[in-house]
Specification:
The chain is of the alpha+beta class and 725 residues long. The protein is built from 12 helices and 44 strands.
């Protein structure tokens, strides 16, 4: 009955926002009050029995972790209460928690201290749920604390060295002792690996807990970058290693430590040091480690199988690509010890394959002209792979299953749109977060046949709240690229839209390689700020240009060696098509974006100065020479190899083309896209004698957030749009 009520409410709301709602959206609603905050399923963590889940709940300072029944949602018992379980009479406030493999111990992380984008340090405790004992792993904040497979030890990183703590005798053992800031890192990623290969914990326990494999980064030859931190009487300098395009990287070693005899071996990853090791993964054999070896051009990948006892390696898989190879975690080693299931673009689309390196047997499991999004899970008992795919079109994500022999493809999810799936242990159940362009997320528990077991969160209150607001209609559109191909887009029109009137258009985009902003999901990018602008009479349009994702390798990789060229040509072409629509004022078309999107909005304004009236660029790259080498060289090769590709597509080099209104925004402590990009672009604009506006946020990182910052930022952007478009 509740699902039916939700369905009717959604149908009613998506067809009547513009007609019945009257309330106007304010910046305070979006960035201060949290008016449009939706409910999710926070703290949801399935247990190994596949029948229960745990949830962290906070109420008036009291934090509890309780077990609930998956199928019914009923409470079973509370396993942790921070008012009762204290360390030296100190109340512990949890940041996060995880279980040991036997689920008899909790690893509790507290007092989070962020480092860069993905990593953080914590004070860490272990709570033994059987004995009731609580242990502090280390007196200082530590990185990447993780249980050994048997739960008897906790490994962690501190001061660039790797350690493990024995819970029985409370003894801590140093695995490495040569860690040094900006020189040697053990067990943790350097900056560029964290940012571009998407992981931070650079060590792994072996399946039997007898070995720890870890990265050793020698950063000595990597050039340093310094960020001034202005808060204080005298600015402080934060200096770290940042390899820009064409510059030296860390030298990597993969070592394997034997806990029984306290010795380590270095694995044989070859004599070439100018390479990347984007992943290490233990196979199902406890003494066999898989090492990904990727060349600097990122178009030749070898998977090495390393022996934990002596470090010797053999190549078990090789893949080459005329462009580049994307690295991900879509791989699963099978129990037979000589095969795995993975995804690859080797035949033009991202698909599932199985590879048996012993028998040299490669099978494609999901042929077709569509992309696999991710492997959700591999069920060895049923010999099935569960995966999400961009089907029936690139805008959607649906859950499917297929047998290991490539037969029995089955659609498991119900309803068009986007299904974000979390597998439950045993693959009897999945958590399905389902939304579409005009339907807020609903969280379901479904079984492995796709049947809905129950609704965990329906967001009905949120849907009813939206009824009160005058919201613009959002629908999908198709435009033509500069090369004549179809481009996916969405358009948001003002409430009470009248086709007989002319409206200004603000285009929003990201446009980066493999990215996707046009999807059948909710909410779309900066949704409620865009709705606020729609209320003020603006049409908002978002287009995924050439180079974006979920449309096959050739569409995605056309921008190779010329980032910014085809994408900007597409946006200029779309703006011209918009200008021909009877309800668009062709003299009032603007564009904005953040990061890659800021690079693109700058390029579009400078190149398309006869089409765009204004642009906003937030934290933009102004020349790919200033950006890190892993990301940039993947798509552009080095500046030494591709000088014209870098210089012909740099906003810094196009400054003289500025005719319209331009707002440049950057955080001074941006460790990702350095403030240098804004400074050098500013210098180029001044040399070209161009007028523009700028806003710089002291000591703010790439996300430009914290305190009142976002409210101030979007107030600045709103006023710029209202005054110049």
């Amino acid at each position: 009955m509740r699902i039916l009520v939700l369905f009717l409410a959604i149908i009613f709301s998506t067809t009547s926002f513009a007609q019945n709602g009257k309330k106007e959206i304010t910046l305070d609603d979006v960035w201060k009050k949290g008016t449009f905050r939706m409910k999710s399923v926070p703290g949801f963590r399935a247990m190994k029995d596949g029948l229960h889940y745990t949830k962290l709940e906070t109420k008036k300072g009291k934090q509890t972790i309780s077990i609930y029944n998956l199928s019914s949602g009923s409470w079973v018992k509370t396993i942790f209460n921070n008012q009762q379980v204290k360390y030296n009479n100190e109340v512990i406030r949890l940041s996060s928690y995880s279980f040991s493999d036997d689920e008899k111990k909790l690893l509790i992380k507290t007092k989070r201290e962020s480092i860069y984008r993905r990593s953080a340090k914590y004070i860490v405790y272990v709570y033994d749920m059987v004995s009731g004992a609580i242990t502090k792993v280390d007196d200082e904040k530590i990185l990447h604390a993780a249980f050994s497979p048997d739960g008897s030890k906790v490994a962690f990183v501190k001061d660039n060295d790797l350690y493990y703590h024995n819970l029985s005798d409370k003894k801590t053992t140093a695995i490495t002792n040569d860690g040094k800031w900006n020189h040697i890192i053990n067990g943790n990623c350097d900056w560029v690996y964290e940012e571009e290969f998407g992981f931070t914990q650079a060590y792994q326990w072996s399946p039997d807990g007898k070995h720890i494999a870890y990265y050793r980064f020698d950063e000595s030859r990597v050039k340093e970058y310094t960020l001034p931190i202005y808060n204080g009487l005298y600015p402080k300098n934060y200096t770290y290693k940042y390899p820009k395009a064409g510059e030296d990287n860390s030298i990597i070693e993969i070592r394997i430590h034997n806990l029984e005899n306290n010795t380590a071996v270095s694995t044989n990853i070859g004599k070439e040091t100018d390479i990347y090791i984007p992943r290490i993964k233990w196979t199902t054999a406890p003494n066999k480690l898989c090492i990904y070896r990727l060349n600097r051009l990122q178009n030749h990948l070898d998977l090495l199988l390393a022996d934990a006892d002596n470090g010797n390696t053999e190549i078990i898989y090789t893949e080459k690509n005329k462009y580049y190879i994307d690295i991900n975690d879509n791989i699963k080693f099978l129990k037979d010890g000589h095969s795995f299931i993975f995804t690859s673009e080797m035949y033009g689309y991202n698909h599932l394959f199985s590879w048996d390196w012993k028998n040299k047997d490669l099978k494609e499991l999901t042929p077709g002209n569509y992309d696999i999004a991710s492997i959700i899970g591999i069920d060895e008992k049923r010999k099935k792979v569960y995966y999400t795919a961009a089907l029936p079109n690139p805008l959607e994500r649906q859950l499917y299953s297929v047998n290991w022999n490539g037969k029995g493809h089955t659609l498991l999810t119900q309803g068009k749109g986007t299904h974000n799936i979390t597998a439950i242990e045993g693959y009897n159940y999945f958590l399905d977060q389902h939304s579409s362009i005009n339907e807020p997320p609903v969280y379901y528990l479904i079984d492995n046949k796709g049947k809905k077991v129950r609704t965990l969160e329906d967001n009905l209150k949120f849907v009813l709240k939206l009824e009160k607001y005058a919201l613009g209609k959002v629908e999908f559109k198709t435009f033509k690229s500069d090369l004549g191909e179809d481009l996916n887009a969405w358009m948001m029109t003002p409430p009470n839209f009248d086709e007989n009137k002319e409206y200004p258009v603000l285009m929003y985009q990201y446009s980066g390689p493999g990215s996707q902003q046009v999807m059948d999901r909710y909410p779309l990018g900066y949704y409620f700020w865009h709705q606020m602008l729609a209320q003020k009479g603006y049409i908002i349009v978002c287009v995924d240009p050439t180079g974006t994702g979920s449309r096959g390798e050739e569409f995605k990789k056309k921008t190779y060696l010329q980032l910014g060229n085809l994408e900007s040509n597409d946006h200029i072409a779309v703006a011209k098509q918009l200008g021909k629509l009877p309800y668009v004022d062709k003299n009032r078309i603007g564009i904005w974006g953040w990061s890659y999107g800021g690079f693109m909005s700058s390029t579009c304004l400078f190149k398309g100065n006869d089409v765009f009236k204004m642009a906003i660029a937030v934290a933009p790259v102004s020349n790919w020479r200033y950006y890190d080498n892993i990301y940039t060289e993947r798509y552009m090769r080095t500046p030494q190899e591709n000088q014209s590709g870098y210089d012909n597509n740099a906003p810094e080099k196009m400054a003289k083309g500025l005719k319209g209104k331009y707002l440049l925004i950057h955080g001074t402590a941006d460790d990702n896209v350095h403030f240098q990009n804004a400074v050098m672009l500013t210098d180029a604009l001044i040399k070209a004698d161009k007028e523009f506006e700028s806003e710089y946020y002291p000591d703010k990182h790439h996300g430009i957030s914290g305190g009142n910052t976002r409210l101030h930022l979007f107030n600045k952007m709103t006023n710029f749009v209202l005054n110049n478009l």
